[in-house]
Amino acid sequence: MPLNPEPGTAGYVGRFAPSPTGLLHAGSLVAALASWLDARANQGRWLVRIEDVDHPRCISGADTAILGQLAACGLLPDEPPVWQSQRSAPYETALQRLAAAGKVYPCACSRRDIELALAASGQTPDRHGERVYPGTCRDGLHGRIGRAWRLRTTGVGGMPMHITWQDRRLGSQQQDLSTEVGDFVLKRADGLWAYQLAVVVDDAAQGITHVVRGEDLADNTPRQIHLQRQLGLPSPRWLHTPLVLAGDGQKLSKQNGAQPLDLKEPLQALQKAAAALGLPPATATSLPDWLAESVQAWATLYPLPEQTVPPLVA
């Protein structure tokens, strides 16, 4: 099986989409390796997208350094990488389509406003829990100035928006967007594009058919499915991988001090990532052979269902 097939040789298109707020660490390598293995196991294409819409948090040079880390591990994309910071025009087009259909509305609420509204209604979210938007601006700004844009999460006649989906590892999943998330932001008050809109527009533009990413992003999936449906875009297949945990039991991340990968020995870093994914130890000692052996192991661990390319949502 070729490790880097020619683009267009299969219907499968996957991607790895790091944010350049720092270099890859052990947890992000797990996500990168999983998405690469899934694409290669299914004779598909693997793309890399630099998700830098939140540019105040991005570190200069981290994007190219990440690409270098991936190359050192033999994880090479089949097309030139895409930078979200260069794609404002299609995001604006999508927002205007939603506005014309009455599916989004301007919002003047600050985080403090939302906290006060929730407290007034007797809600006390956990410190790191979801702040369900109370709908303050849903029916008008009432003289205030709207700077952010929110997507409605209620169905016909104000019915709750209940989303169900199937994950290849986690199984059947569901979420009531109306009560568990509320109307969510697509464009922030500071003018920056929100992750949800950018990722949905770009997945469609790049023809992504399968998303393989960390389990911490699973609760974003219903929001993205809802937005895909509102824009008439296809929904990919989903697979959310196990997380690498820090010493305190929390997800290993840049925010809690995860150290950049030491890639003096790329194979050792990959072996640790494969173990976190539940793959059996590969016997090969060279990087290309180890990757090829791991592709075969992945195909056994996470076989695709018969229908691999999702249909267009009506």
Automatic annotation (TrEMBL):
Cofactor: Zn(2+)
Transmembrane segments: none
EC numbers: 6.1.1.-
Key words, A-Z: Aminoacyl-tRNA synthetase, ATP-binding, Ligase, Metal-binding, Nucleotide-binding, Protein biosynthesis, Zinc
Location of the Glutamyl/glutaminyl-tRNA synthetase class Ib catalytic domain: 15-259
Comment on bound cofactor: Binds 1 zinc ion per subunit.
Binding-site list for Zn(2+): C107, C109, Y133, C137
GO terms for MF: ligase activity
Highest taxon listed in the record's lineage: Bacteria
Motif ('HIGH' region): 18-28
Keyword ATP-binding: yes
Motif ('KMSKS' region): 251-255
Protein purpose: Catalyzes the tRNA-independent activation of glutamate in presence of ATP and the subsequent transfer of glutamate onto a tRNA(Asp). Glutamate is transferred on the 2-amino-5-(4,5-dihydroxy-2-cyclopenten-1-yl) moiety of the queuosine in the wobble position of the QUC anticodon.
Family stated for the protein in its record: Belongs to the class-I aminoacyl-tRNA synthetase family. GluQ subfamily.
Stored HAMAP family: Glu_Q_tRNA_synth
Protein name: Glutamyl-Q tRNA(Asp) synthetase
Gene: gluQRS
